[in-house]
Design brief:
Blueprint lengths: L1 E5 L7 E3 L12 H15 L8 E5 L12 E4 L2 E4 L6
Antiparallel strand pairs: 1-2, 1-3, 4-5
């Protein structure tokens, strides 16, 4: 499954995981995220204008470090600089 990862100015990344049941039968996972994201952004205006990247969910770091996730160079990394 593909997800869209947003990076707010402060704090951890926010992840959009579209409901798989809303995916069309011939729609790719990437196209599904691209189709659903604008509706989600309209419903949650805090996401508008944030930097984002679409990734395979398998490429995300472990969820145990979720509070330290940051978007860097098109990937989600764990920020170990000290501030959570």
């Amino acid at each position: 499954m593909w997800v869209r990862v947003y990076q707010p100015a402060f704090g951890p990344c926010r992840v959009l995981r579209p409901n798989p049941r809303t995916r069309g039968t011939k729609e790719s996972a990437q196209a599904h995220v691209a189709r659903v994201a604008p509706d989600v952004e309209q419903a949650d205006l805090s996401l508008c204008g944030l930097p984002w990247v679409d990734l395979d969910e398998a490429d995300l770091p472990p969820r145990t470090d979720r509070a330290r996730w940051r978007l860097r160079d098109g990937a989600v990394v764990v920020d170990r600089s000290g501030a959570a």
